[in-house]
UniProtKB/TrEMBL annotation:
Pfam families: Pirin, Pirin_C_2. It comes from Muriicola marianensis. PANTHER family: QUERCETIN 2,3-DIOXYGENASE. This is Pirin family protein. Belongs to the pirin family. Residues 148-233 form the Quercetin 2,3-dioxygenase C-terminal cupin domain. Residues 9-120 form the Pirin N-terminal domain.
Length: 237
């Protein structure tokens, strides 16, 4: 097993007043040549947007963009005609393909919205842009890794144009789940949303990340009640 560790405090950080953001990988003004990506996982931003503020309309092309709200209400509008509000428990994915413009705004005037913005390089260029979102059932993440993203339209969750699988899970202290990779050539990026755990012999705390590859499975031990995001991706596009 090969491994890379990204401690929470090592991430890039920018506070623009309306946006307080942490970058696991190089993004905008944060540049570290050793932190460009993990396989086809290109962006993992941990964003907090001030009340009533947001990202104005801007374009994307040939990227799979996943948004995972953690707190508050995020309003989405795009050039495909979609208007939606996503909240904690929702998962949103957009295939930018040949080109799409969208905006993201904190719908509330009295509290911040917090969400993860994740970009995955696609395995097919210039596809027709598409949008999808789902709402997780209450208790869906309890004591298991629940699939939220896959390459297959018929599978549970949302599908994207890449051989990638995303799972989320919530576990009690002492839980010892194992994740089996879908493809041997893939790697797994572990992001600790809340709590703390041991994985691959390493101690991970809140907002720490760890990438592993050349392994068929990863075993965990939760040292606190924890919520994890697992992102399995090809290591080369």
């Amino acid at each position: 097993m090969k491994m890379t560790i990204h401690k929470a405090e090592s991430r890039g950080h920018a506070n623009h007043g309306w946006l307080n953001t942490y970058h696991t990988f190089s993004f905008a003004s944060y540049y570290d040549p050793s932190r460009m990506n993990f396989g086809v996982l290109r962006v993992l931003n941990d964003d907090e947007v001030a009340p009533g503020m947001g990202f104005g309309t801007h374009p994307h092309q040939n990227m799979e963009i996943i948004s995972i709200p953690l707190e508050g209400d995020l309003e989405h509008k795009d050039s495909m005609g979609n208007i939606a509000v996503i909240r904690s428990g929702d998962i949103q994915a957009m295939s930018a393909g040949t080109g799409v413009s969208h905006s993201e705004k904190n719908r509330n005037s009295d509290k911040a919205v917090k969400f993860l913005q994740i970009w995955v390089l696609p395995n097919k260029a210039n596809v027709t842009p598409r949008y999808d979102q789902i709402s997780l059932q209450p208790g869906a993440l309890k004591d298991r890794f629940h699939q939220i993203i896959s390459p297959n339209p018929e599978d549970e969750g949302i599908w994207i144009h890449q051989d990638a699988w995303f799972h989320m899970g919530e576990f009690q202290a002492g839980s010892t789940p194992t994740y089996d990779l879908k493809k041997k050539s893939n790697g797994l990026y572990v992001f600790v949303l809340e709590g703390a755990c041991e994985a691959g012999g390493e101690n991970l705390n809140r907002r720490d990340g760890m990438g592993v590859w050349e392994t068929e499975s990863v075993s965990f031990k939760m040292t606190e009640p924890s919520k994890l995001l697992l992102i399995e991706v090809p290591m080369a596009n």
